[in-house]
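User: I've been going back and forth on whether these two constructs are worth ordering. Before I decide, could you fold them both?

Assistant: Sure. I'll take them in the order you sent them. The first construct and its structure tokens:
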Amino acid sequence: MMGEEAAPTGPPNRELYALLNLSPEASDEEIRKAYRQWAQVYHPDKIQSPQMKEVATENFQRICEAYEILSDETKRLIYDLYGMEGLTSGLELGPRLSKPDEIKEELERIKRRNEEAKKMAHFQPTGSILFNLSVPDFLGGDGIMRGMVMASQVQSQLSKDDAIAIGGNLAANEKSGGGIATAILRRQISPVSSIEFVASTGLQSLIGMQTTRQLTIHSTATINISKSLSDGSINLTNTWTRQLSETSSGNIELALGMRSAITVGWKKRDENVSAAGEFKIESGALGASARYTRKLSSKSHGRIVGRIGRYVLLTILSNLMYDVQEDRNHFLSCLYMCGAIIVLILLWIYFFNLFSNALEIEVGGGRKISEFSTVRMMYTIGIKGIFWKLELHRGSQKLIVPILLSSHLAPAFATGAFIVPTSLYFLLKKFVVKPYLRKREKQKALENMEKTWGQVGEARAKAEKAQQLLQTVATRKRNRQVETDGLIVTKALYGDPKAIERRDEGGVEGVDSGVIDVTVPMNFLVSDSGQLKLHEGVKKSGIMGFCDPCPGQPKQLYVAYTYHSQTFEVTVGDYEELSIPQEGQ
């Protein structure tokens, strides 16, 4: 029998079953029997050597912990569903937690509570800096900087229900500047409602209050009222939000005051796609905007954004953008499609310029360059001109640099402003970025390999010491099987399948061999009736006396044994069942 393992993954939350060599469906009696068997071997009082006593104590504690969890019905259910995380996260055990759904709901509640506690322990700073640059002004001798905007906010949790946020904005252009300072006090009134008090001073001095309440499990309402301290005007805003599906939501906002308006919005977000749209009606004008972002890989994404004002609703060219993304590996096709989009945009702007004073489309993408940092470049074309926009996002901080290239919509210049950076991106990615990343990944792989060898060496040393404690009992069981001509394991190897295939060539004993000899624990696991069984769905590296000799790689178990004076061999995958002797032997 030959077992092939497709991938180095398998059923989760089975380590404790492997430790006691139990099936996940084991009965209470089987759990007690396995515990007694292992406890007799590793009880520290039975070990004389001080060095081995320490090893026995460590393994005995692991056995006791496994027995304590698996022998308790509720703890075992939590472990089967969520592993050790569920047991260490603070689940309140009791009679009411008797069903998987109830335990899942309680675990999610605990996770939310822990996340909230984590937030309370830290300040949460956010901020953004925007530099507005102009190439035409620079070429005209007026300087490249058109203006700058800085915004910053620090939020701190005062208590479980109270939070405060203090922030400010500073803006400056060629002729003037100003700022706003804002303070917000938020209180959680109940699990479904909260209230905020806002005060700001500067260019827009006002005081206000906002309250939010969850009306149903799928809908929320927010009411905001504010009074301007400069002109005395009062503004009232009502917002209703409803969850439309697991990944989408919609909202309606009614604003009354100096700028009364009605806004209808929609958002959708799943693993690969993020989209949003908004339609706004206000005094004397209409406006709409839409955004579509698609994940291209684990580190990169593409985005298209559209905005329009006055009387025309913008329809995003999402189908064309999708075709570009699907064909992104073909450079010429991508350039062709992008050029077609630019031509359509120019014609569109020329036509709608007769009807609208605000039309703008952005096309671009971004890439994650580290765990916390993302860069993005957008190409913007609209009535206000042609822009490049560079963005750097790191954590909750943003740096945004819009660069005005031209105030005139010349077709040749607009197309070149898109094609040139796109071509440079593909060329740099192919000839500079990818070779560098491959070199860095290779270096990291070598460093990880060295680190892994150290971890494997420690795990192998622990497994060998555990085998020494099993040796006496394993030898006694083996001699008993010799007397009855029963099951005798002559050789057992666990680890890399390729290394196991080369077992006759030697060299399978070193730390870097990818294989560990498990003949001793396999003889220990032979029952008095001459049977040996390893259970399906349980990773064999968790068995006492075993270890993982090649982390991240597929593994197999090879066993050579004699039964009734005949020799047999069997190989099984890491999660496959082993039962010897087989029927008919």
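The second construct, handled the same way:
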Amino acid sequence: MAPSMHSTFVFMAPSMAMLATVVHVEDRAAGPPARRLVGAGIEDVNHELYGGLYSQMLVGESFEEPAFEGLSGARIIDAIPAEPAWPSPRRWRTWLRANSAAEKGRIAVVRDAVHGHQSQLLRDTAIQNYGLGQQGFALMAGKDYDCVLWAKVDRIEAARVTVSLRDGEQRASPVYSQWLGASSRWRPLSFTLTSNVTSHCGMVKNRSGRSGRRFCVQAKELPHRCYRCSGGFEIAIEGEAMVDQVYLGPGDWGRFKGLPVRRGVAEAMFQTAAWEVLRLGGSMCNAPEYRWKHFRGPRESRQPWQGFWHPYVSSGFGLFEVLELCEAAEVHCVITLNNQETPEDVADFIEYCFASDASSKWGTLRMSDGRTRPYKIFTLEIGNEQNLTMDFVQQVSAITQAIALRCAQKQLLMPQIVVGQNIDLIPNFESTQGRKVTEEMLKVLKGVVHSAWDAHIGGDAFSDVGDFKKLLNVSMSFFQPFGTQLVVLEENGVTHDLQRALNHARFHLVSSYQGDFVLMDTAANGLQVFNQNDNGWDQGQIMITPDQVWLSPYGWSQAMLSKHSKAFNVPLHFEISAVEDLELGAYRSTEGASRSGVGLRLVQWSGRDQEVNVTLRWPHSTADLSAEVLAGSLRALNGPEDPRTARDRAPRWSR
């Protein structure tokens, strides 16, 4: 017998005490090596982009929010346009008048702007910004922050524009000023601000004070309290000037590989949680103004748009920034487009992304926009959660034909196409009409080289896994003649506790024994800004505050499984003694020293306290053994005060 260099266990369960099982694993593959990619999706729900991943620290960057007493965003009600009754809208602020501002100063919103529809006019006064929900900034002493704002002076006398960092009621940096003379043009002003203090971050009571900076959305981790930091930003005008499109973000030290992305967030995504695929998509893409051509070019020239989840969103971070992020992180990208894009516009998008020939109109435009080389190949999803209708089938048919024609004409790579209709038992398979329309869509996809269908599944209840197994069984038999595969681009729910982590692991085990039928498995809304969850999707794998980034139990489940599946990816036949509410997968590697090693993934999900004893029978000797455990109460959570309560740990065990 060849000695095993390494054998591992990954075990997830509630708190443990007395359960015994015997596992007999054969060194015989139960299917091909798993090539499934796992990761998460992001969209502008719960501010996970604008206010989260995007390096922009300010919210209200282009002064598009309604004015109160002349100041844009001084009191806005952030209702969800698509769901006005869910939840109760909250009132918060983007900009505040500085306490030191002269009473004689003038402040007004005017219809003259470099970006959007309006800008902020200031005369002998100052305004301040404390970020998303007025949660404050986590400034770091000695660190540089980049600031760019556009200003215009259309009066005879000159005006002085001054910017500074704030810490509470005190300045946190030297002031930086520029004088501007009268001009009919908008001019960009650039500053580098160096903080001379480190902000304090901590807990405050969840109440709305006079400043408006002490209101947050209650989190399960911290009932009745908010997490706040003391840093802020101020613009002061001496004389009269209009300001618009303001950016404040960390220097290279705080950005991921030079991109407009928070470094700590990206490292948590791709290093700690080990995401292998990133999807930009979801209901955000169903907004009428969500069109790819709105997101190309310099950020200051992209016009604002009304979002699906929030009425005022940034156009500064969109699908092309996500493509560059995927490339820098070396992960696969999924881009969802609005299915109402015309076939010609979608074909233009493919040419824009992939053309390298200078004779290409859209390739040349990409180069002029600053991206000289083509983007790496990605998966394109058409629509999100569309109704199963023949109209949608015809849309997908027209779009795929237009893409195929353009790729043939320009000699471009054809991306994998995903149908964004949330496939499920009732609409697709349990009626004659549903099966007929599903079959018509599969006929369309059969002409595509690489195609898949999107499934959005539950994640909170243990019964959701049984529903997923039923969907797999039905869809596999139905899809097989057409060669179409399945992708799970949203594991959806309203929790991020240990029970959600266990369900995620169970989905992983089920998919890993389906060969290459399930190509991807991604969580919905993988990022969540803590205390800013203003709708029901409370399901972040990665939680974000101004000064911290940490994994929820759900995120630790993702991290453990992703890393283990890289080392052990060939499913094996096994037998296990009957144990209630225990699921297992056994695997070996395709290469290297682990070929004779075995990797086990076990999920015990009864909710009862049990100790698990595993006796492994394996035809090779075990020279080295290791294990990781994720355990705790089913409702265990990780909060900012103790972000490592539920995480992977080395267990107490014996050989």
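Notes on the second construct follow. The chain has a mean pLDDT of 88. The chain is about 20% helix and 30% strand.
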